[in-house]
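Why predict the complex rather than its parts? Because the way molecules touch one another can change local conformation, and only a joint prediction can capture that. The input here totals 569 residues.
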Amino acid sequence: MITKRDVEHIGWLARIKLTEEEKSKFTEQFNSILDYFERLDEVDPDVPPAHNISGLVNVFRADVVRGSMSRDDALDNAPKKEGEFFKGPRVV
Amino acid sequence: MLKSRKEPGDVIIGLEVHVQLNKLNSKLFCGCSPKYHDAEPNTHTCPVCLGLPGALPVLNEGAVVDAVKVALALNCKIEERTLFYRKNYYYLDLPKGFQISQYDYPIAIDGKISVNGTGGGERHIRIRRVHIEEDPARLVHKGPIECSRYSLIDYNRSGVALIEVVTEPDLRSPKEAREFLNVLRNILEYLDVFDESLEGALRVDANISLAGGTRTEVKNISSYRGVEKALLFEIVRQKNLVRRGIKITQETRHYDEKRGVTISLRTKEEEQDYRYFPEPDLVPLGVCNRIDDIRESLPELPDTKRQRFVQQYGISEYHAKVLTSELRLSNFFETVASEIDPILSATWIADVLKGELNYRGLGISAFPPKHMIQILQILRGKNITEKSAVQVIRTILDRGGEPADIIKQKGLIKVEESTIAKAVAEAIKENPAAVQDCRNGKNEALHFLMGQVMKKTHGRADPNIVNKLLKEKLQCT
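Output of the joint prediction:
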């Protein structure tokens, strides 16, 4: 059961400020998602966990350099930049 | 006896050491160059390491080989199956919103290495795990981190291959922690997977508690020299709190290297907040079938080299330990020992040169091996005194130059026995009172006369010969 406090905590983890209205809305939505997942309880629990469904193992690339993007391209989509840098809020 | 049980007042330290695999050509999951140190900011990025939507990581095979090398050198068990996980946290240094790391299935577990314990003797430090992960980006702040209003981000470091070596809480003092890091650093250099001289090459988080108390985590210790200081500060802080009856809070603290203090920075995510889950974009890894090949490719490691030095060169265990404590130093020794008696070489390198280097905060690269060979050749030919040889070494370190020139300039060539005899005769003639005292068995008088002779020969006489001649002349013991 997801409570309003859980939603506040998840909002904090994502650094998102939620309004009171959003908090109750998301609490309701999270709970209905969890209800839906309860259907998994019907599955036989002895099945080994599938961490990856492709069946592949050991997909590598060789340790060689491939060109990087230009800085202009890299910074092009940044919402905020300063000189050669991306710019963001101080989070401590 | 080595103390292994925890007693009240004991300090308990566990380390998480992040090591950049900075000898690789490319980053962990993309083909960008990891050589960001001299690069312009944000010039080594691509959709993968910028976390652009739809970009897919592909694992660098070289990083896996390096990680297995390290794990084997740390006597770890390599796991049959290993997985990558997403460690979710929302912070500027990770543009994807998560770090690709390993969690339940690290590449290796259960290792150990031995270090010199604080109380003397060897101590085994258990390695809990070794895992592979990506380095986050570098943040640049204008001014101290607590005062700046925003962060600038350089994503060149984002995605560089790291391994994290996690110890059990087996370390009992800041000095032991430093010793552990020295041993680890040395192994990494022998393996040639890491260049310590690069900024950020080795970064340490430490868990510290007093026996029975709450532990704190100190992050951001960016040099292995800083570890001892950061830990000492944190221990004193915890002891003071205990003495004043204040409860220690379990928290993450940030080490401010410039001020030498730890500060409580932010309320950190708890383990469950990272919401680890298997990285769906990467397939499992199974490297067991390659362990034998990798093991065979391992270079000679410090312990093996130490034993070989003792056997092959007949030098003492202590000298062998000092000489193998740094790869470059061991190479230096072998170069010199190929020309000069190894025992003489070991003594001069381990006892004299190393001391002079440490005193000046220099590494062995500051002194060319050919100079050591020349100095020892001249010394062995009895053309300079040991004291003069030390003087030559110091001069080279302080001002540079060639041994032969320095010996000539400073007039260090040893004085002939006939010249010494003349100086002895003069000293006896000029100091009748001292001669009398000496004959009466006063040792200080003999020392005084020796001093007079050394003065006359400008300190270049062999003290043994001076002593011998004086005693002969004065017939005193």
